[in-house]
Specification:
The model has no long low-confidence stretch (mean pLDDT 80). The chain is globular, with a radius of gyration of 24 Å. It folds into three domains: 149 residues, Orthogonal Bundle (Arp2/3 complex 21 kDa subunit ARPC3), CATH 1.10.1760; 44 residues, no CATH class; 120 residues, no CATH class. A hairpin with a 2-residue loop joins strand 1 and strand 2. The chain has a two-stranded antiparallel sheet. It contains 16 helices and two strands. The protein is mainly alpha-helical. The protein is 74% helix and 2% strand.
Amino acid sequence: MARPRVDPRPLTEGALFAGLAVVLALIGFYIPVIGIFVSLLWPVPISLMVLRHGIRTAVMTVVVAGAVLSMVVGILEGTIMTLTMGVVGLAMGYAISRGWSAFRTLAIASVAVLVGLAVSVGASVVFLRLNVIDLLAPDLSEAAKSVSELYAKFGIPKEQTDQIMKMLVPPRELLLATLPATLFMAIVINALINHEVARRIMPRFGYQVGVLPAFREWLFPKFFAVLYIIAQGVVLAKNMPAFVVAGRTISVAYESQAIYNAATNFTIPLMLCMLIQGLSIGYFFLNRWKVGKALANMLIVFVLFNPSLWQMAFMFGLMDNLFDYRRIMTMMQRK
């Protein structure tokens, strides 16, 4: 009886994509600045293997890439890198193969990033004996001092430098208190970047990735603004002085630091959402006023990298979330 013919393509492409993943990982490992951007391509070869030959072959590709990486950079480092990015590639490849929407793909990518982060931190704590607090919330005082000295060399006034540092480099105690919110935002942003990278590369290989709505159409659920107002009220209530109503003294202050930290962690992601929506409604009006795309993009980037304008963009986003200016404009046009 003749033996069934074995298709060599999965093995050949698996070796090719494993090699590509290793090269990308090594660039990210040895060239820090460029490597940050190159590492975003790491999950793409794994996702392609899922799409072309299924999840099992893709898992074998991850194992092979991990073995090669471990021989070059060390067993622990190679394993951490492989699990961190390999899980993301497998998750995104599976989501794309199922034809899931952009939001659903983004959700599973976020979960994959969380799993990779948990594995990375856990392995670092167990095998390298690193302090998990130092790993997730490092002391940034020395970095802040170096940046302040750099600003001083450029002639920026000390008062302005101190204000910028307070906004961009919070105290370590605040970092620890807001660690859950910071990790949540970092995970979602990482997943979003990986999704966008895959969306731009996958069509070259004949695969389509779910597309997020145009930025000018981004609109978060209305209850986000309400939740922010409630959570911010809880934060402010902690040290709010008593007040008198109809001859009665009323105090809403509380002493629980746990409630305060929980409310603070709740407000931070919501503030980011309102900021993004503020930029989105700004982009909507720039588009409506026929401002060139290049100039509109430059203005949005200018606001994004100018902390003094964040509060204004945040307020626009909060008001838009409550009243939906785009819907109002559409209704006015119909009349």
